[in-house]
Amino acid sequence: MKISLNWLADYVELPKSVAELAERLTMAGLEVEGIERLGENLEGVVVAQVLAKEQHPNAEKLSLVRIDAGPMGQLQLVCGAKNFAVGDKVPLATMGTVLPGGAKIERATLRGVESCGMLCSAKELGLAEESSGLLLLSPELPLGQPIADALGLRDTVLELNVTPNRGDCLSHLGVAREVAALTGKSVRMPSILTPEESDGEQFEWELSLPEPERCPAYAARKLTGVTTGPSPQWMANRLRAVGVRSISNAVDITNYVLFECGQPLHAFDLEKLSGGKIEVRRAHPGEKMVTLDAKERALDADDLLICDGSGPVAMAGVMGGATSELSGSTREILLESARFLPASVRRSAKRHALHSEASYRFERGVDPAMLSFAQDRAVSLYVSLCGARAAKGRAHAGEREPMRRSFTLRFSRISELLGAKVSEGEARSLLCALGFEVAGAGGEGSGARVTIPTWRPDVEGMADCAEELARIKGFSTVEATLPGGSFAAPNRSKDADVEERLRTAMAASGFCEAVNYSFVAPAPLALLAPAHRPIELANPLSLEQSALCTTRLAGLLGNVRHNLNRQMNDLRLYELGSIYWRGAEAPAGAGQRPLPVAAHEERVLAGVMVGSRAPMQWGIPSLPIDFYDLKGVIEALLEALGIAAARFVPLESPLLHPRTACSLEVGGAEVGLLGELHPALAAKLELPRGLLLFELRLAPLLAAANLAPRADPVPVFPAVLRDIALLVDAKWPVEAILEQIREAGRGLVEEALLFDVYRGPNIPPEKRSLAFGLRLRSRAETLSEEAVNQVHTQIVQRLAERFGAQLRA
User: What is the Cα–Cα distance from 423 to 446, expressed in whole angstroms?
Assistant: First the structure.
């Protein structure tokens, strides 16, 4: 929101220092993001008078001009414009001047004639988008006067960041109220002169509000004898300062009042309206209208329209229609001032991507008490600037007086809420400065009754009131103190402890945590998690973020692709987050629509690995990671959670390469999958072969986790080491063989590890040789040779019975 200090000074006395004003507004919650000093870019442009004008001797379309620049004397220059004559006063850009467009004026020779400066048009001065010739100035202006002073262009503009709850500050009057409260000054309201014609007939117009909850009030006034022309310089300057292009006096007045009072108005060409009535209704099915931007818009049944007897003439609170637009021939105006439901305007503006200054204010809420005042202010300007005559009275429908909200205030409670002493007198004074009305005592009894001003819909009760006092008094006046009471460490949930251990274990394995959006493109979800139906967003941020993720691998694989494209080839990334999917539709009765089952949500841990096993160095060869590196990471996770009963089970999955695809089971429950990304899928996702990934559900891990500290006593008796080399069918998984070794060992097998796998000469093709290292130990005694041999024999027999294993010599 741009605020012109020249304009603001009409309504309140300002501090002498712009920096002080900006600081006080910022500390009060209206952050000043920038300060722009207008007119500084026109230094070097002065008022000059044409003394002589002759045809250029060497160019048919150029003129040789002699001008009087006052203190700078007479100058000769070459000009291509034709719309000026001897005696006219025009803007002169002297040598060395840099114009708003970036052009630097220097001494030049044009077709053999020296030119010392340049005569300027309004476009070259940045005062208009188009111009057909030089800007002709008032003959009363003194020669040599800077053009910024001559045209009143010098101004300071503050760029305010107004929060959505402070719609009252989207106008100069609203900011003036804040400045007055901060400085102890009073607000001067704009003057309203000749609001209606004394001897004119009473204005009557039929108004209908079939949607009173969406349009609580609507008022219309009639103006006749309107003369359309350029706006006065002061109005054009003020509108330009806040970023609005001046069009004509009839159009500019409604814009001027909007930025002055914060109440959007709309002016209809009365001769283009039909039926003698205005109806504020919802759009009919299939209805269309052309808005002021010359675009035809297909209307939704939720859109609120302003309609005359033949159809829509405006989209309520958003933009007017082209059929009733003001033009140079407009002589009669119907001036609208209304209130609209903020949510209704917001939906229509967003639906049609049609955001205007009016919708920006209606969406945040306008002051209901400003409806009539702003309309009368605009009528006063039409009378004084357009020579219009105002009909008596106004047509009005809906609420006439806005409801005033109030609450009970205890001044002692204010000090408790702020943590700083605020006296009753000071509180009353500050509240009254903000426009609140305070009646009654504020003690522990009935309390004072505070009436909220109509322009503050964001204030509801005592806490808001306390914040207002702190804001105006200054947050720096509230001393920093520690809150009273005792502190106790919060009880941590098991979920939080499990996630903390998972993060620690992943970091110990060399992984970095990634944090991705839960919104992703639907295409990769169909490849990575085809079993889950994604939940598509009704209002996505973009097409690439139009569905909730059914797998966290979608974001992680995107991270991998992004890094690989930037030569980051060794990656280990993980993410803790939720996945979402839609359930199947529940069956319904005959003639009824099926009812969708509620969406599902679950926390998962996902990770990806690609690249080398260890950083490149001279002493160790660079080896690529493989499935067993990933399996080791998962085993480290399980150990961190105290989970021992886990199994890796072969799996068939279109996501994973058949040679490595497996699932993780804990306590008989499937936790997730891990393995190498399928080469065909890697090609579709533009990823390299050999990429390893996993995704685990947190719920079964949480159920099985044992976070209690465990300690095994130091062994008292020595261990015995034995090796077993077996010839078994290749179909048997090693995990199953290890389980049988532990069971057959009767608790004496402390550790069993596979240390060799051989397939080749002297081994049948359907078999393989497996060598296991066993550590045997008893907690009660030193194992004898006989006991060790007995256990060894039992293990060999069990493996022979279950797997047909043969002991190799």
Answer: 18
**Do residues 150 and 137 lie in contact, with contact meaning Cβ atoms separated by under 8 Å?**
yes
Residue 432: strand, helix, or coil: helix
Q: Find the helix or strand (DSSP H, E) in which 211 lies.
A: none
Count the neighbouring beta carbons within 10 Å of the beta carbon of residue 752. Answer: 19
Written as one letter, the residue type at 564 is: L
CA dihedral of 490, 494, 496, 499, whole degrees rounded to 10? 160
Bridge partners, 320 (sequence order): 314
Question: Of residues 481 and 609, which shows the higher confidence score?
Answer: 609
Question: Cα 346 to the chain's mean position, in Å?
Answer: 16
55: β partners: 63
| 220 vs 396: CA distance, rounded Å | 7
Question: What pLDDT score does 336 carry?
Answer: 95
pLDDT of residue 197: 52
Residue 573, phi then psi, degrees to nearest 5: -125, 145
Using a cut of 0.70, tell me whether the model's pTM lies above it: no
pLDDT per residue as tens digits for the range 329-345? 999 999 999 999 999 99
Read off the pLDDT of residues 693-747 as tens digits, 9 standing for 90 and up. Answer: 999 999 999 999 998 888 888 889 999 999 999 999 988 888 889 989 988 888 8
CA dist 250 and 144 (Å) reads 34
DSSP string, 11-69: TSPPPS-HHHHHHHHHHTT-EEEEEEEETGGGTTEEEEEEEEEEE-TT-TT-EEEEEE-
Angle at the Cα of 602 (from 597 to 605), degrees rounded to 5?
Answer: 155
Strand partners, 724: 772
Q: DSSP string of 613-679?
A: SS--BTTB---B--HHHHHHHHHHHHHHTT---EEEEE---TTB-TTT-EEEEETTEEEEEEEEBPH
| Percentage with pLDDT > 70 across the chain | 96
Beta-sheet pairing, 206-208 with 277-282: parallel
- Within 8 A by CB and 6+ apart from 502, the residues are 576, 605, 637, 640, 641
Residue 259 has pLDDT above 70, yes or no: yes
**CA 525 centroid distance within chain:** 25
Of the candidates 670, 705, 711, the one whose C-alpha atom is nearest the C-alpha of residue 493 is 705
The enclosing H or E element of 360 equals helix 357-362
Which tens digit of pLDDT belongs to each residue from 203-212?
888 999 999 9
* Closest by CA position to 398, among listed 336, 457, 453: 336
Here the tokens at position 549 are: 């993720």
